[in-house]
Amino acid sequence: MSNDVRDRNDSAWLLPNDGTRTNHQLRTDMRRFADTDEIDLVIVGCGAGGSVMAQRLARAGWTVAALDAGPFWDPDSDWVSDEAGSHHLYWTEPRVISGSDPVPLGSNNSGRGVGGSMVHYAGYVPRFHPSDFRTRSQDGVGVDWPIEYSDLRRYYADIEGELPVAGQDWPWGDPHTYPHRPHPVGGNGQMFLRGAEKLGITAKVGPVAITNGRFGNRAHCIYRGFCLQGCKVNAKASPLITHIPDALAHGAEVRADSMVTRIGIDENSGRATGVHYVRGGVEHFQRARMVAVAGYSIETPRLLLNSATNRFPDGLCNEHDQVGRYLMVQGAPQTAGRFDEEIRMYKAPPPEVSTEAFYETDPSKGYKRGFSIQTVSPLPITWAEHVSAQGHWGADLREYMSDYVHWSTLGALCEFLPQAENRVTLAEQTDRHGLPVAEFSYTQCDNDKALMRAAQSVMEDLLHAAGASEVMTIDRAAHLVGGARMANDEHHGVVDASCRSFAVDNLYITDGSVLPTQGSANPALTIMAVAARAADLLSNRRSES
């Protein structure tokens, strides 16, 4: 297996094997393009989608530069085993939130710097189900994708090998196996498995993008529990270590600390000419034959709207008022249970055990689609937020905090439905670059609320069945997708099935904003698979022309 992986991605073997975790020589020797060079492709954003695009197309011989507004992280010097000391990993630029159910933005749904939010994600990487691609025709809600699950199957398998993913054989959706065996289970996972067995619910260990044993020069997981703070060990996969080294080795440039402010457009041809960006307080313009935007579901629509021209007065690619629409979050209620024995839920990766037994529409229920459940294992600051959200404060809060080691915590991901009015627009407020910031308006529908209640009930039943004497649930929101969705035509989306924009034929969007629905699965793996497919199609199109 490793030889096949290495043939298409050498990143794990390009990392040093001397106790450090960054190939500084590779970064020092990185190819650097001039702004005046008309490169083949400039990519905006260096997270899940942008990094895969850079790596795949650099391997295909393209001249590629990936620009990111944040830094080029060094795990040794930039990441710490501390919750409060890790807030710089989040995108904290100003944004406006509104709607009946406004969504807080930060650690749970945004990232900053090379690697994007995968630097601080939990490492959980399930696939979408085949049903996710046809929710309208199958369940009468949402929308059908212009592609099928089968179009992504081989890309899912490829990326799972490159991360790599560890987990038990997966029985849900399209049943499949994983390249690495599952990790041992800690206290939190044991409680989940105990409750699931009592209730007759199938639960499995994994899938996590965390090495189980060595992989190339990547170290194995040491179960320190700081996955959400940036994995200093480099056992947890993020594009910073899984795709960027190989991209650099094949001639790509990663240009960090470069905030892209606008996409350049030729008013006569309507084609993209490159990107305007600010670096070190200086404005630049990088010329390119093609542009790929991978800024994710808030910043991608914002960039398109801020790139308005005489030809596109309402924003780039927005002739049919589709940019920013159908943005979705996942409902993510979190339920904790108190046990007499010590659980110490922090002593393992947060997502250890999960179930997708409630993922599909159940005709006997009063709602459509479903939810998944997984262990989440909050560290102390996040645990304090959970407890205080229940109204506990002062001496009461201190008592719950001192009791931390006795608690087990589960989290659900509920499939909220795409709605046109859940969208990003431009606010009157501007950022430090003088650009209008994004306003994100969100309102839950009745189906969304019913899913949240159902997920809470199942999680509380699981913990009670495992022996919990007390449970408490808080409502949360997680991952963002949508905002520039793929569709069959420009009246219903922003890009086509290959991620090429309908309006500008040399502009691609390759991040989570193109997903038409979100399933009950964490989106990272699907974003990477969609980007890998887009790069494949783009490379093939060029070789045929």
From TrEMBL:
The keyword Ribonucleoprotein does not apply. Residues 418-531 form the Glucose-methanol-choline oxidoreductase C-terminal domain. It holds the Pfam family GMC_oxred_N. InterPro entries: FAD/NAD-bd_sf, GMC_OxRdtase_N, GMC_OxRtase_C. It comes from the Bacteria. The keyword Metal-binding does not apply. Residues 110-309 form the Glucose-methanol-choline oxidoreductase N-terminal domain. Keywords: FAD, Flavoprotein, Oxidoreductase. Belongs to the GMC oxidoreductase family. This is GMC family oxidoreductase.
